[in-house]
TrEMBL record:
Source taxonomy: Bacteria, Pseudomonadati, Pseudomonadota, Gammaproteobacteria, Enterobacterales
Identification of the protein by name: Acyl carrier protein
Source species: Rahnella laticis
Gene3D superfamilies: ACP-like (1.10.1200.10)
Highest taxon of source: Bacteria
Pfam families: PP-binding (PF00550)
Sequence ranges assigned to domain Carrier in this UniProt record: 5-81
Length: 82
């Protein structure tokens, strides 16, 4: 099981790279929709989750939870990692 801090660090790094953000621009309570992610960004998140943490994330997670925060996503990945 991946630790929350490890998950948060990797997901934050991916988002900062994708959106050309500084790491301090993100907080755990940042809603993903405020980052103006496009469909490719969400696909990258799903690939990262599978590759790094062994978690299959379906697009429905984001569709059904449009207000999901970075903390909630990272907690989900941490709780479901192998």
């Amino acid at each position: 099981m991946a630790q929350y801090d490890e998950v948060y660090e990797k997901v934050s790094e991916m988002l900062c790279d994708a959106k050309d953000l500084e790491p301090d621009a993100l907080t755990p309570d940042s809603p993903l929709h405020q980052l103006k992610l496009d469909s490719l960004d969400y696909v990258e998140l799903m690939v990262l989750a599978k590759k790094e943490f062994g978690v299959s994330v379906e697009a429905e997670l984001f569709v059904n939870n449009p207000q999901i925060s970075l903390r909630e996503l990272c907690q989900y990945l941490s709780d479901n990692s192998k």
